[in-house]
């Protein structure tokens, strides 16, 4: 089964999947495959998944607690979401705004979550600097583009709420930019009614960041086995036996770090508790200086609009434009050209001068959403997971990994919904895709007429 048809809700295993034909893969050759798990081996903590979360959990277990761990990757490090995303390092995860968090829980809880998301961005930046990871970090700044006047008003309200209730003056700077100034100084976006610029957030090459994390883990002597998909998980007498094609790993504790690339049946703790959603990204051919000027692309800052079905984009270091949004509903449709074509049409409406510019790369990947729109980093009785980043895992995966390592080591985590409650079960699990299809149609109508 090729990657184009892989669907976590249908496929039994994520094994034997090719790498995505992404722009990132063209910028960085993957290193030689690491050996697969062979024979019977033992470890204190087994980690399933060699993406951001799995690698950094291993890193923190070793450096903070000197705990023996072992990483199992079903394919090759660089296969999953960690190497397919848009490379946006943002303060946030899930789909809830902070005022909604305060209403759902209370102000103290919302403030605590804000702090965790702030630390996540700082943690990624710190790892890049400490380990000199050459992942092409771009200019600081996160632009949120209002797609209608009501959205601009909502942006102002959200920023005021954060400034008044969440942030210290020194760590939150919100600058409102009217439509004319935004088009002249940042991006000549023909559907922009103004924008909010936040001082945090930046773009990176996600594959190079991932391989930087991999190098950090290897330097610590931690074993990473690639092409080692877990085909059976047997719990007996408080121990865990993870069975792969060529070997078995016996562990005292287990971390599930596959996020949306977790198969439909891995462990009852996460089965039927998340919705895999396809995201689609296109990248243009490089733009010339004249094309950049004509299109009005003056900024390399990461940008996202305020639609329910959001578009996100940024100018890459080699002056290609990356533009992303939702993909197909069903995995079997992921490779159909229509989804990339729709993104190109959306891009052309935003930047009409690029209508004749060719798309050089078009790929898709899975993200994971939880029922309550929040990521859950949870462990109990020696089994933990982090799941539900909802597309914002580049930054929060680092904080999640740190908290997972703390939890496995027996430390108490902050008393927040992110950490103190397991993933809620998705209702009507067999109808998840139908519900998603309906939500997409609702979102399209809301974005167009609301």
Q: What does the model show?
A:
The chain is α/β, with parallel strands linked by helices and about 450 residues long. The protein has 2 domains: about 5-85 and about 205-275 and about 370-435, 3-Layer(bba) Sandwich (FAD/NAD(P)-binding domain); about 140-205 and about 275-370, D-Amino Acid Oxidase, subunit A, domain 2 (D-Amino Acid Oxidase, Chain A, domain 2), CATH 3.30.9.10. Helices cover about 35% and strands about 20% of the residues. The chain is built from 12 helices and 18 strands. The protein has helices spanning about 25, 50-65, 100-105, 105-130, 150-165, 180-185, 205-220, 290-295, 335-350, 395-410, 415-420, 430-450; strands at about 40-50, 70, 90, 140-145, 175, 195-200, 200-205, 225, 230-235, 240-245, 245-255, 275-285, 300-305, 310-315, 320-325, 360-370, 375-380, 385. The strands form 3 sheets. Strands 1, 2, 8, 9, 10, 11, 17 and 18 form an 8-stranded mixed beta sheet that branches. The chain has an 8-stranded mixed beta sheet with strand order 5-6-4-13-14-15-12-16, sandwiched between helices. Strand 10 and strand 11 form a beta hairpin. Helix 2 runs parallel beside helix 7, helix 2 packs parallel to helix 10 and helix 3 (about 100-105) crosses helix 4. The model has no long low-confidence stretch (mean pLDDT about 95).
């Amino acid at each position: 089964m090729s990657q184009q048809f892989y669907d976590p809700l249908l496929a039994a295993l994520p094994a034997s999947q090719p790498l995505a034909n992404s722009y990132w893969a063209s910028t960085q050759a993957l290193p030689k495959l690491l050996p697969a798990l062979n024979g019977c081996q033992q470890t204190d903590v087994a980690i399933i998944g060699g993406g951001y979360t799995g690698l950094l959990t291993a890193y923190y277990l070793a450096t903070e607690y000197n705990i023996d761990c072992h990483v199992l990757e079903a394919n090759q490090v660089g296969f999953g979401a960690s190497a397919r995303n848009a490379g946006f390092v943002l303060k946030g995860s899930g789909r809830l705004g902070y005022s909604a968090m305060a209403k759902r829980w209370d102000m103290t809880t919302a403030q605590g979550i804000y702090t965790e998301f702030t630390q996540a961005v700082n943690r990624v930046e710190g790892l890049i600097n400490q380990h000199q990871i050459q992942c092409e970090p771009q200019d600081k700044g996160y632009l949120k583009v209002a797609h209608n006047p009501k959205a601009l008003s909502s942006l102002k309200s959200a920023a005021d709420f954060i400034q008044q209730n969440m942030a210290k003056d020194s760590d939150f700077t919100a600058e409102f930019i009217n439509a004319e100034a935004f088009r002249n100084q940042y991006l000549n976006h023909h559907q922009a009614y103004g924008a909010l610029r936040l001082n945090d957030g930046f773009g990176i090459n996600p594959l190079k960041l991932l391989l930087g994390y991999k190098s950090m883990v290897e330097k610590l002597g931690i074993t990473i086995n690639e092409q080692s998909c877990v085909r059976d998980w047997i719990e007996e007498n408080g121990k865990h036996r993870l069975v792969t094609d060529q070997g078995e790993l016996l562990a005292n504790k287990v971390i599930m770090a596959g996020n949306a690339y977790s198969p439909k049946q891995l462990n009852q703790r996460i089965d039927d508790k998340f919705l895999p959603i396809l995201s689609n990204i296109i990248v243009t051919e490089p733009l010339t200086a004249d094309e950049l000027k004509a299109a009005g692309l003056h900024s390399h800052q990461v940008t996202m609009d305020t639609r329910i079905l959001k578009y996100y984009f940024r100018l890459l270091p080699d002056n290609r434009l990356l533009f992303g949004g939702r993909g197909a509903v069903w995995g079997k449709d992921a490779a159909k050209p229509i989804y990339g074509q729709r993104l190109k049409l959306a891009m052309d409406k935003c930047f009409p001068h690029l209508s004749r510019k060719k798309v050089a790369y078009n790929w898709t990947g899975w993200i994971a959403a939880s029922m309550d729109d929040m990521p859950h980093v949870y462990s109990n009785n020696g089994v933990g997971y982090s799941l539900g980043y909802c597309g914002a895992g580049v930054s929060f995966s680092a904080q999640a990994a740190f908290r997972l390592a703390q939890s496995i080591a027996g430390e108490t985590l902050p008393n927040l919904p992110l950490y103190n409650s397991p993933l809620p079960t998705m209702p009507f699990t067999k109808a998840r895709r139908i519900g998603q299809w309906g939500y997409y149609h609702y979102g399209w109508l809301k974005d167009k007429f609301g």
